[in-house]
Structure formats: C-alpha cells, structure tokens
Amino acid sequence: MAQPTKERILDVAESLFAAHGFGATSMRSITNAAGVNLAAINYHFGSKDGLVKAIFARRLAPMNAERLRRLRVLQREYDTIPLNELIGAFISPALELSRDAQGGGARFIRLLGRSYTEPSEPLQDAVRGMYQQVIESFKPAFASALPGLDREELYWRLHFLVGTLAYCMAGSDMMRLIATSRLPDDQEHEQLVQRLTAFLTAGMQAPPSGQSLHAPLRLAAGHAHPSS
Amino acid sequence: MAQPTKERILDVAESLFAAHGFGATSMRSITNAAGVNLAAINYHFGSKDGLVKAIFARRLAPMNAERLRRLRVLQREYDTIPLNELIGAFISPALELSRDAQGGGARFIRLLGRSYTEPSEPLQDAVRGMYQQVIESFKPAFASALPGLDREELYWRLHFLVGTLAYCMAGSDMMRLIATSRLPDDQEHEQLVQRLTAFLTAGMQAPPSGQSLHAPLRLAAGHAHPSS
DNA sequence: GTTATATTCAAACGAACGTATGAATCGTGG
DNA sequence: CCACGATTCATACGTTCGTTTGAATATAAC
User: Fold this and answer.
1) B57 within 8 A of A156, measured Cβ to Cβ
2) pTM (2 decimals)?
C-alpha cells in the first residue's frame, strides 16, 4: 500500500467521476478500484457527497489561489492590465493543472469541466461558491481592460469566456471529432493555451453587439478597417 | 388526456432530464409526472435508452436540417460566405429552438447543452452522430471564410465555437451568477444571439495564434493596418 | 356482437445503490 | 505485554432502480 487509504480513494474517485460522471460512479466501483473496503468512504468522508466535496476542495483552492496571485502580480505591474494578460491569468492555472497528467490534475480538470453542466446539487453548490470569489476579483480588471463595454455586455462576455474554458476542460469526445493531435503533450498544451487565448482575446474585444458586426474593432490593442 | 401517452412521456422526460440530468431522473418520476403507468415507457420505447434516443431524434433532426438549409441559402447567395452569416446559420437554429419555450424547445436545448459533457454512452453516441454530419458540411464554408487559418487552427476554433454555444445552451446557473436579465424573453433572446455572434465572429477572426496577440486582424472580411 | 389488436394496468422481479453495524485488526504509548 | 484509539473488514439493511409479466381494458374491423 504505497498511499494511505484516504488519498487513494480521492485519486481513484476523481478518476472514475471524470470518466463516467458523478451519478454513474458507485461507491462500490470506487472502493473496488482502489482496493479498499466499501465502508472506507463513509468512514473517511462521511458520505458520497462528502467525498465529492473533498475532491473539489483538494484541487480548487490552490488553483483559484494561483489565479488571484497572478492577478495581483499583474495589478502591480500594470496600470491597466492588457486583456490577453488578464485572460492568461484566468485560464492558465486551469490549463496548467490539466497538463499535470501525472499528478492527476488532468483528471480533475475534466471533472471540473463536467461539473459546470452537471445538475447535481451538492456539486453545483461547491463549485459555484469557489468561482464567485474569483470572478468578483477579476471583474474590475476586465472592466478596465475593456472600457468600451457596458456592464451587461461585459458580464455576458465573461460568461462566454468561462463557457469556452469549461468546454475545453471537459475534454468532450466531441473535441476529438474536430481536431486530432499529433504532438507531445506539453507542446500541445502550450499550443492550446495560445489558441484559446487568441480566440478569447479577440472575442472579448469584439465591437459591442449594438454596432454592425462589420464595424472596425476599436477596443484595446487592435485597429481594423470595415470590410467591403 | 389531451395528448397521447407517447407524446406526453417525451415532453415530461425531456423536461425532467433537462432539470435533473440523465442518470438522476428515474422512470418512475417520469411516469408519475406524466400521469401514466410505469410500464408505458418500456412499452412505447423499449427501454430508458430508447426513450432518450427518441427525445433527441424528435428535436435534432429538424434543427440540423434547418442549419443545412440556411447554409445552402447562403451558398447560393454568396461566393464566399461572410463569417458572421455563417456563424448565424450555425447557432441561430439552436438558439431559436431555445426561444420556443411553449413548444418545449427551450427545455430540449438545455438538455442538448448538457449532453455535450454528460458521459452517458448512448447519449454521446446519438448526439455525436448527428453533429458530425452538420460540422462536415460547414467546414469548407468556414475554411473559405477564414482563408488565413491553417486546417488545424480552424478546427480548434470550430471546437471553441461549439463549446461556447453548448455552454450557452446548457444554461448553467453559473450564467445567472454573472448576468441577470430584466428584459422580456424574446428581446433577451435577440440580444443573446447578437452578443454571441459578435463574440464568436471576433474570436474566429483572431490572428493565428503564432502571431502576436496585439497584431491586427487580417482575416476574412477585414483589411487591417499593422498596429503600433 | 364477436374477434383481433393495441394499450394500460397493478404487481413483482432481481440487481445495484448508499449507508450502518459490530467484530477483527492494526499501530503505538504506557 | 497490554490497553486503547484508529482503521479495516465482512455482512446486512432498507430503498430505489430498470425491466418483465400476465391480466384487464380500450379500440377498431368484420
């Protein structure tokens, strides 16, 4: 027994939840895969819900702390934080965790992506609570980086941003339908961060939807001409 | 009994699946809510999976047909379809269905959004099969509208696009955390389409991720100046 | 009106679920 | 060595699940 029972349960459960979903993973399948007794989950975590909360607490707290740490660094460095830096501070901790295959971060990130749309109550509550704080911290910085947007439009775009990130993290098999990779994992990760950042930065900088969609971008970094 | 049993089961099941998820909705809760006998599901649909497939078949076929119809119209109208029109043809049928609250389309769209990340096998298979065909049809048009992107970058962006749409459709409560609405439903819908289209159009037009994020847009509809 | 077909019904099946229990085992300090 | 708290164990409980069954009822054709 290399790992203590408690850690082993957390790892295995994280893996199975990510692979088969929350409700479809039984406690028996977890304890069997972990090679521990069925009652161990209730002994160490009280209940299945307790196990879920423990899984999220173990990973989310450091990830969000890293987000806020990067935000503070940027706030010290810039008067108005460039948009792409801001987006990077928000999405990188998640995507970096997803690169940590060996430490199990990748497993968790897929689970986290799923949790955004999974209707399980205890799961939603736990995740939402942890996100609220981070989003509130990032809101003012986004508002400064995108002065051309009114509050409502900005919030919707943050919604789109979170959605795109969540979908990426879910790593749905839909993805493999569209893009097939042939690069080593770390290069592929770096490429994904760049692609996603480029996509999101441009999307956030889009002209307010009241204007014509062909109107030039006049926000943040880009200058462009109207099309023909 | 206003509706025949079969239709009533479809409507109620669609609603409950959207509200509580697939695995968490039991056949007994469905038949109780529909006021029909427990055995009715197995009689009319063979199994719970059969019911799920019937739900998706009823809605997805018309929606994808509408997508392809709009694509054909644009192909007749344009030599190279403008990006925003293309995106509109892809996302509008989904969002319009989501506007159809009375017909139950809205319920289904939330279920569809969830299905992208739900790991249930029969569900994934059904949805993926129906999406493949539509994406293959749209791919060449997107490639023409975005000539500056190589194949791989394009496919990733289509992935981001689908992801953002899926997340919007899932209508996660996370959304209500960010943006609160105070408009009538139809106006809100129109606004959402415009906001989402603006966001996605700009994102798709982002400079290839190899370039600087501050570089001007030089794709598709835009002529751009080098930035400072 | 009788027959054939389609649908609905109450009841039960075996399996799997999350949880609880009490005895057995382990690890360690006195 | 022993005693005591922490942990693991086999086992069982009560529920709920999806599915099946065979009888009862509705519907329609001749």
Assistant:
1) no
2) 0.74
